[in-house]
Amino acid sequence: MNAESKRSFDVAVIGGGPAGMGAATVAAECGLSVVLLDDNPGLGGQIWRGESGSSKHTQASHWFDRVGRSSVEWILEARVFQVGKGHLSAESPDTVHQIAYSHLILATGARERFLPFPGWTLPNVLGAGALHSLIKSGLPVEGKRIVIAGTGPLLLAVAAYAREKGAQVACIAEQTTGAKFACFGLSVLLVPEELEEVWQLAWQLQAVPHWKNCWPVAALGKERLEAVRLSHHGRIREIASDYLACGFHLVPSLELAQFIGCAIQDGYVAVDENQQTCIPGVYCAGEPTGIGGFELALVEGQIAGFAAANRKDLARKLWRRRDAGLRHVRALRRAFELRDELRNMPQEDTLVCRCEDVPFGLLRAHQSWQSAKLHSRCGMGPCQGRVCGAAAEFLFGWSNSSVRPPLFPVRCSSLAEMPVETIPEIHEGGSK
Amino acid sequence: MPDSIVVWVAGKNVEVPKGATVAAAVFVAGAFCRTSPSGQPRTPFCGMGICFECRTVINGEPHRRSCQVLCEPGMVITPDEC
């Protein structure tokens, strides 16, 4: 059984990463009552996971310190499964939180894009970000051989961290071209604040082969991963490996924004200069408005927080920093655009939907995500298409805009406690 | 190991650092966390609570996402089936 908690706040912030921490902190410092909800056992999001104690990261320790001193009330291990006008429901291990709010700030972050290839469901094949957070949360990798594959700057950060913890990084397989990667490198070098970090990464990774035009063809092994087969400049290489960490850059987590009806433009939540969505009083900050990293997320979060507190004068002061960050968003998008050959990675029997074990061959016959879902159960497992949806979008060009409550699988008792007036009406043709 | 705790994973004693997630303990044990509908063993995949591949039974409670749960001394972790 659940305990039930009913509270009312000026501002509800969903997501406790840099954007959410920035938003919640400044709104509270302006005198508003603020609740900050996050699904994880600690604040910091994925990027600052486990940094709350003694962080080496100066920005992280600044914000952990500042949110700690503020009046922000945070609720961890809380999954928001229903949002309505002025009200939301979240489930934590033993409580259902019914929260009334005046302003809502969505800081739901991003996740990795995963693409299917033969063997990607084998034990010890995992996300690149997943390897990073697992090492942070207690996985020893000393002496382990690791292949890191996919695309995006995250691969470099993961490789450096794994090496620091004693792993042997056999190679980084980056799908983009050498030229595109070099352009990205130059664009980063033009930002003085990034320089030190870039040199540090380059220094830590000098002994690691960083192959461009390279992507996984298959993960091999009987019960567990034993080796990775890669295509590199058209040649096939096979590399023995204990772990394969793969990720094809990031995709924004849009479910909540889509669910409450925020306009989506080119795959991201559309916002005005104060981070307000098309719904008055609903703001969005960080990766859902464009993949740009934590510095931009922090700035956008603060703008949203100030705007919610009606301190547009303070929000305006951050516009220039935000607009500089948006250039980085465009540079990232250009550099790590997925190449067409990746659509040939899955074979007929390669599973695309890991929850329901639906193979590529079965999906190809369909014309839309809706049809594939209804006939094959693709995307109907507990992840609700969070993994296979982004893959299907790339492989087949299917878009998935229909989001239904509950936004996460929850206990029946949590559903039963949802206030009747917040249960959405089901319109003909499904809920929007 | 200083500041370590011991949990049971698939019938095996496993020592993990304090603050480790159950997902990390599953890897340390060389175990699986769930079997898929067609019977494949799976290990944690996304590491951030969205893919649900890391579902395990923790102290008898099924479908817990092991990457979101911290280990506690004496915890009993067995594979989830579905």
Write up this protein.
The complex is a heterodimer of chains A (about 425) and B (about 80). Chain A is of the alpha/beta class and about 425 residues long. Chain A folds into 3 domains: about 5-110 and about 250-335, FAD/NAD(P)-binding domain (3-Layer(bba) Sandwich), CATH 3.50.50; about 115-250, 3-Layer(bba) Sandwich (FAD/NAD(P)-binding domain), CATH 3.50.50.60; about 345-395. Chain A has helices at about 20-30, 60-70, 130-135, 155-165, 180-190, 190-205, 255-260, 295-310, 310-315, 320-335, 360-365, 370-375, 390-395, 410-415; strands at about 5-15, 35, 75, 80-85, 85-90, 95-105, 110, 125, 145-150, 170-175, 210, 215-220, 225-230, 235-240, 245-250, 250, 265, 270, 280-285, 350-355, 360. In chain A, the strands form 6 sheets. In chain A, strands 1, 2, 3, 4, 5, 6 and 19 form a 7-stranded mixed sheet that branches. The longest helix of chain A has 17 residues, at about 320-335. In chain A, about 50% of the residues are buried. The model of chain A is unreliable at about 425-430 (pLDDT under 50). The model of chain B has no long low-confidence stretch (mean pLDDT about 95). Chain B is mainly beta. Chain B has a single domain, classed as 2Fe-2S iron-sulphur cluster binding domain, sarcosine oxidase, alpha subunit, N-terminal domain (Ubiquitin-like (UB roll)). Chain B is built from 1 helix and 7 strands, in the order ββαβββββ. The termini of chain B are far apart. The longest helix of chain B has 7 residues, at about 20-30. The radius of gyration of chain B is 12 Å and the shape is globular. In chain B, strands 1, 2, 3, 4, 5, 6 and 7 form a 7-stranded mixed sheet that branches. Helices cover about 10% and strands about 40% of the residues of chain B.
